[in-house]
């Protein structure tokens, strides 16, 4: 059994907007095992990015992480530590790679200087040593002629190369956990595959854990050990990829799996799209949030929210799955 590296419990992140309180993340539990990859999947707006940003405590006003949220990592609750303590973790023990490298890289500095800045923020090294380490990192992420590329500016590189630079920056301090939020969405399909392959190699070589946020269950199948399925600000199912792909217990997971394009399908064959839309984070429905789109829903589903309880594939929040536990006991159920 692999040890837990990160445990998120009852994470709630709300945004106070003019129209009301957006309950973007509303009681999320996650578990990331040491050296393993957790895929976080779900439709747009389900709260994946807000969850990732909350783990790093990068939520800015009007957003707030609510009391009672816990982010346990290396013996600390990151939801409760001081900003100063957090700075020692961020970019050092936990790093993040975002979707669009051009918005994260500074256009007026060379990529080398940006990597060096990251290294020197957390490590006492001379400028020369840091530059050598930057070249080493560029080589590690597969950038050709790193001695020359270290002095290049972001706009002189292709999208794929820039994403490699972002990964190099994230790895500068050999983090125990890398959070990658849709790291390949902005890239061409062939480059996407290369970046995912690079992430997989680096995870094994550096023995780090990865949280991979994606829309794409095909990517989860290839890359991840565990998966958490998010819907409307909650995790509705989680467990090992093998078990959940073989035997999904939540109707939403089932529907997502049915919507994966299969090899050999022609472009004009319709995919199984899930009818209906995700409800608004301003007004989550009172019962199961998926009930309005669920073909199995019965009356009770619309009234009472189901708890996340143990199933044969992991944990699922569905009244069809022997869900006798009330929501107030959710914590106990997820710890079981
Ligand atoms: N700064 C903000 N102010 C108000 N609401 C926000 C803010 N950031 C996110 N939200 C809301 O939080 C909800 C969750 O957003 P989030 O970006 O986490 O979804 P996601 O699952 O990552 O979607 P996508 O796959 O499109 O990135 C959305 O309803 C979004 O509108």
TrEMBL record:
TM regions (residue ranges): none
Family affiliation: Belongs to the ABC transporter superfamily.
CC terms in the record's Gene Ontology section: plasma membrane
Recorded superkingdom: Bacteria
Protein name: ABC transporter domain-containing protein
Function: Involved in beta-(1-->2)glucan export. Transmembrane domains (TMD) form a pore in the inner membrane and the ATP-binding domain (NBD) is responsible for energy generation.
Domain ABC transporter: 6-257
Keywords of this entry: ATP-binding, Cell membrane, Membrane, Nucleotide-binding, Transport
InterPro entries: AAA+_ATPase (IPR003593), ABC_Ni/Peptide_Import (IPR050388), ABC_transporter-like_ATP-bd (IPR003439), ABC_transporter-like_CS (IPR017871), Oligopep_ABC_C (IPR013563), P-loop_NTPase (IPR027417)
PROSITE patterns according to UniProt: ABC_TRANSPORTER_1, ABC_TRANSPORTER_2
Any GO BP: transmembrane transport
Membrane-protein topology: Peripheral membrane protein
Protein location: Cell inner membrane
One Pfam family, short name: oligo_HPY
Species annotation: Bradyrhizobium jicamae
Listed PANTHER family: DIPEPTIDE TRANSPORT ATP-BINDING PROTEIN DPPD, OLIGOPEPTIDE TRANSPORT ATP-BINDING PROTEIN APPD
Keyword Signal: no
Molecular function via GO: ATP binding; ATP hydrolysis activity
């Amino acid at each position: 059994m692999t040890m837990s590296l990160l445990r998120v419990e009852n994470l709630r992140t709300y945004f106070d907007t003019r129209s009301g309180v957006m309950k973007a993340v509303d009681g999320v539990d996650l578990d990331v095992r040491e050296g393993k990859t957790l895929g976080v999947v779900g439709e747009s707006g389900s709260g994946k990015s807000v969850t990732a940003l909350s783990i790093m405590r990068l939520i800015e006003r009007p957003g707030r992480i609510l009391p009672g949220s816990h982010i346990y990592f290396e013996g600390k609750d990151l939801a409760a530590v001081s900003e100063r303590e957090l700075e020692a973790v961020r970019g050092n023990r936990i790093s993040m790679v975002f979707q669009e490298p051009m918005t994260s890289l500074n256009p007026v500095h060379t990529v080398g200087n940006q990597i060096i800045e990251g290294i020197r923020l957390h490590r006492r090294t001379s400028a020369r040593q840091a530059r050598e380490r930057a070249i080493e990192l560029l080589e590690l992420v597969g950038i050709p002629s790193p001695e020359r590329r270290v002095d290049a500016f972001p706009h002189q590189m292709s999208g794929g190369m820039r994403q490699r630079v972002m990964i190099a920056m994230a790895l500068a301090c050999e983090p125990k956990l890398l959070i990658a939020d849709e790291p390949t969405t902005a890239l061409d399909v062939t480059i996407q595959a290369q970046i995912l392959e690079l992430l997989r190699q680096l995870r094994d070589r550096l023995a780090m854990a990865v949280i991979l946020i994606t829309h794409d269950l095909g990517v989860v199948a290839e890359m991840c050990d565990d998966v958490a399925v998010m819907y409307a600000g909650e995790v509705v199912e989680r467990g090992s990829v093998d078990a959940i792909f073989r035997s999904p217990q939540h109707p939403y997971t089932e529907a997502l799996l049915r919507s994966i394009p299969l090899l050999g399908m022609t472009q004009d064959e319709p995919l199984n799209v899930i009818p209906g839309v995700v409800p608004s984070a301003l007004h989550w429905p009172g019962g199961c949030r998926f009930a309005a789109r669920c073909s199995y829903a019965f009356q009770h589903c619309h009234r009472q929210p189901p708890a996340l309880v143990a199933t044969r594939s992991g944990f699922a929040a569905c009244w069809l799955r022997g869900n006798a536990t009330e929501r107030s006991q959710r914590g106990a159920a997820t710890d079981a």
